Amino acid sequence: MKDKRTISRVLRYIKRYWVLIVCSIFFAAGTVALTLYVPVVTGDAVDLIVGKGNVDFTHLIKLLIRLVIVILVTSLMQWIMNSCNNRIVYNVVKDIRVDAFHKLGKLPFRYMDSRPHGEVVSRIIADVDQFSDGLIMGFTQFFTGAITILGTLAFMFSINFWIALVVVILTPLSLFIANFIAKRTYDLFREQSETRAEQTSLIDEMIGNQRVVKAYGREQDNVDRFNEINGRLEKTSLKATFFSSLVNPATRFVNSTIYAVVGIVGALTAITGGMSVGQLSSFLSYSSQYTKPFNEISGVITELQNALACAGRVFELIDEQEEVSDEDAPEVIEEFDGKVELNDVYFSYSEYKPLITGFDLKVEPGQRVAIVGPTGCGKTTLINLLMRFYDVNKGSISVSGKDIRDLKRKNLRSGYGMVLQDTWLQSGTVRENIRMGKPDATDEEIIEAAKAAHSHSFIMRLKDGYDTLIGEDGGNLSQGQKQLLCITRVMLCLPPMLILDEATSSIDTRTEIRIQKAFALMMKGRTSFIVAHRLSTIRSADVILVMKDGNIIEKGNHASLMAQGGFYSELYNSQFKQ
Amino acid sequence: MKKIGRFFKGYVRESIAGPFFKLLEATFELLVPLVMASIIDKGIAEGDRPYVIWHGLLMIALGVIGFACTLSAQYFSAKAAVGFSSKLKESVFSHIQTLSFTELDEIGSSTLITRLTSDINQIQSGLNLTLRLFLRSPFIVFGAMIMAFTINVKEALIFAVTIPLLSVVVFGIMLITMPLYKKVQGKLDRVLLLTRENLDGARVLRAFNKEEDELAKFDSEHGELTRLQQFVGRISALMNPITYAIINLATLLLIRNGGNYVFNGEITQGELIALVNYMSQILIELIKLANLIITMTKSMACLNRVMAVLEIEPSMESGDRTFEETGEGNDTAVSFNDVSLRYRSAGAESLEHVSFEARKGETIGIIGGTGSGKTSLVNMIPRFYDATEGTVSVNGEDVRKLDLKELRKRIGIVLQRAVLFKGTIRDNLRWGKEDATEEEMEEALKTAQAYDFVMEKEKGLDTEITQGATNLSGGQRQRLTIARALIRKPEILILDDSASALDFATDARLREAIRNMPSGPTVFIVSQRTSSIAHADRIIVLDDGKVSGIGTHEELLRDNDVYQEIYYSQFPKEDMAYEG
After folding, report:
1. How far apart are CA A13 and CA A33, in angstroms?
2. What angle do CA A124, A129, A130 make, to 5 degrees?
3. Are A567 and A546 spatial neighbours (Cβ–Cβ below 8 Å)?
4. Is the pLDDT score of A468 beyond 90?
5. Which of A571, A494, A501, A568 is nearest to A530 (CA)?
6. Which of A38, A125, A509 sits opposite B195 (nearest CB)?
7. CA-CA distance, A437 to B246, in Å (whole number)?
8. Residues within 8 A of B (CB atoms), A 236-295 only
9. In chain B, what are the domains?
10. What is this structure's pTM?
11. Percentage of chain A exceeding pLDDT 90
């Protein structure tokens, strides 16, 4: 049922290329027919060469000329067919991938945060690749294979009914044997891959953490564990490798037996004059051509099933529910005044575990709001809600007096500048990364922002300065340097509202204090939300929210909270305790 | 090559028997067309039925023997290949265990992992295939040609022309497409990177409203990929038609010339059919050979990469002095005497002329900005790295002269990154001490402030930790790694910024508990927080690899600029930073 739906989905993608498909089918049929015709002509030619002094040269030449034409046409058709198939498959792959990628921009964070990214990537890359491989094989082999079988059958039966019957009865034997072996090896392969996985995870863990291994002097112990698994792997591996390598010889053995039987029966028939020597030779070549697609088709079918499963996984991603559309958002904010209000907000990531309940907060323009509390108390969640990465379950959030659900997400987000603890940079140059929030920024503006964020001097020390290429996820930069670049990125575009989530956590305190000054400048007149665990960095906030288990348990400024003598003052004092 | 030889040890017989049986099988395969020819020429022409049947049975018998040969060949090859790679894997793994930090830094663990896993797997299948096919395919190709020569020299000349021609086409197309496929892979990697980025960086990209730009980028990158794929596809699609044409045209020539020779009585009709059959065997084997060569080059590249790991010499040798010989009476636990350290690939020194002494039972705090050399300094105590200048001594003896194993056994170091291993909490604690008793574990957990949360777990000490310890929070992981170090009751305990995920209150309790440990270890605490080290007996302030000052908190706060700056950045003098 599900397969059927997947197939019709695949067909819809393929339909766009129907001209190519018609071509491909036409040329495939042509190729196969001509390929089958060649042995007939060859056989006829052999029949003209009977023995010494008995060769019909005039007919032979005619036949051979025909053969040349047939061969050349076949080759040409085969090439066109292959090219058509290539085109279809690669274009379909591209279409599917683009659709899937498009989806990535619209997936709700609920989906992305709850799934390992590697898995989603593998759906878009590996699964689609596997699907395309299966599709290529399916297209070329399944189709031509089927035609070949039918064609050879027709030709063989037209030459000699009985010998053809022998071939038809015997061939399933090779299929049967191949199947038999495949079933047996399946378990062996599973065992092998399980042991191999066990070994890989040991390697992964131990080599990845070799430092700890050395620190604790566990080298020998490791080697022992490794050798134990390796010994088991060697045994299962040998069995799996050996048994799986039997398929080919076994089917070849069956085929050669068929060849011999056809030879015997054919020769006996030829003695009685039931067929000519040439026909026997074409028969022999048919019998090997006939068995080949059988051997391949079983492979093709597993490949196709696999391809369908892969396609199913990609489609699942493409069909995933999108974020609530904001196409018809009725409101637009031209100028953010910096007012933010949360009214009776309820939110949780999972139904069963309420996180934020009945949250109220009024932030006046230009206010500095600091959020503190132990890990897991919902600080980052608040940011997710402000940026509308997640929607509230109940209640509302409004900016400049307008409910954020009445705004386009783009509109809302353009009002915020965000620096997260999780520093993320795109592969590209330093300049490109800084420019992300303001694509038309001049070089002067970029340098000015970098100076303000104290990143200019380290950027200049990089190999190519602002044109230094940053590897995937900032590869060659230290955590602190990455964080500085993220800050620069926001410095450059300076939106009316700021969100700083542990923005300086990886920067040493001396540099931090310099950046804090820049931040102070940046925050002047801007509504800002600051999350930090260093209490010293939030003492100067207008409002401090102390969160615990999703609720605000205390609210006020530093002085009033300290006077209150509650959770905040306990937290604050603990850092001085010796 | 000689180095590779030792991994074949114990599998020499198999490595020879594999190809040998394969050749035997090929020989029988080559005989089949000749038998068929004799059936046609003698059996059919003379109407000799028994002859036909006997020779038919002979063909079947050849098939059976061939099959038996293949089975043996497959078995021996599999055994040799699996055995070889298993041995190789073992020696690479244990070789990696002998490498020092310097070498590990240079290669990087991810490369080592791929070499141990996918590279060796590739070698295994490559070797298996090579043993089976490398001799067989050329043997059949040339065997077919030689058989043709035994039938008729002039006809055989057609073989002599066709084989090189086919080889040029098959290998030529492969040579052209191989680098192109590499390019395709490169493009695919780009597409993969883009996809990954859009997941990992979704928050940032959406915050900056970059969704459409990213889509356009993906569209154009993938467009390039598709164009390249089609281009390569068109070239490799040439292979089948061209080889098909060559083989069939050669067959046609065989028949055309064969007609003349049969007419003159030089060859028989059956022999002509045998020639045609030989021709059709060549193509399959040539394609197999070409594929094999691709696999072989890949496997060779893998093998070279793996061998390169084996060739890395560990740069550190253990000394032979035991602690008994150095005498336990020495009052100095650790001393640095004018120590400098430069990492092998680094341009500048990470530590310069560091000197200090730590007496037994003292607590030493180490503080400084990012990259000031804190971690480098403590890493030299268990001899993770050797000093490029000066000497590091433990118990009064140069660490290079001490038995490395024993040295590390006496040191408990908790690294910055809290690493735990798959297995139970108990298993993980045993890393610190193989034969730790229940009481010892509880004691260590209590000191590390981990006892409560471990006991709150349903299975307590037997709680399973997943790979990467994803089922524990950062703070919990850190406390367990501390417990693991404490359990061996080390003489020297090093905490390298290993309480950073703990809140201030827990951090304070931890320090308190360590101070009260009955074994009284010498403790080194590396931290960015002044509050974590302020109580230490002495604090070493590092600035850019140099010691800027050594003293107590009060002394440094009075005299040391760097320390003052760090301290006041964390504890502003009554709000001067913001409101002043």
Report:
1. 29
2. 110
3. yes
4. no
5. A501
6. A125
7. 61
8. 237-238, 241-242, 245-246, 249-250, 252-253, 256-257, 259-261, 263-264, 267-268, 270-271, 277, 280-281, 284-285
9. 319-409+528-580 (3.40.50.300)
10. 0.72
11. 10
